[in-house]
Amino acid sequence: MIKSLEFYFDFISPYSFLAYKKLISLKNKDKIKVIYKPLLLGALHKLGGITAPAFNKRKMKNMKNDCELIAKKNNINFKWNDKFPINSLYLMRGYLTMENDLKDKFFEVCFNAYWKNNVDISDEENVKNILKICDLDNNTFFENIQSQKIKDELRELTNLAFEKDIFGAPTFVVNNKIFWGQDRLDYALDEYYS
Fold first, then answer.
1. What is the pTM of this model?
2. Which of 53, 100, 133, 179 could form a Cys-Cys staple with 184, CB 3.0–4.6 A?
3. Which of 3.40.30.10, 3.40.640.10, 3.30.565.10, 1.10.1200.10 would CATH assign to domain 5-193?
């Protein structure tokens, strides 16, 4: 069996963005089999009865400062988004509609738009700009994300994450062991290489 690193994410998670940037900066990144697992963070929090830091003024202030420190230490181009938090539903569903050869580009463009370029990715016009960069058709995209199959798939992925005891993003799973938070990526990689 080929070992893999599962990466649970939501585009609205700044820590998922930072973990992703750390992961792709690794010299041996091409030797790591990463399986990206989208989930809807707000729905996951609701299932777990968790109040997100974004809705706690003190935690929010600390989270913003923390993300900026992590970005600076790791040389990651990062800008706290003025529209945080937003609803990432369209883009999370959109990720599920992508052909495999387009997923990486869509992933990168969405994350960079929100956490590097300060774009409101919940705004339909901004989503259309993202689609243009990815050479994707607007009509097909918006039609696909409204399909019941895609709605059910994102709901099911979020529910399965909850059933695995995942409660936040990013979370990494290697050998059925859970590593929560961008600061646990190194531990997940240690498990991957063990």
1. 0.93
2. 179
3. 3.40.30.10
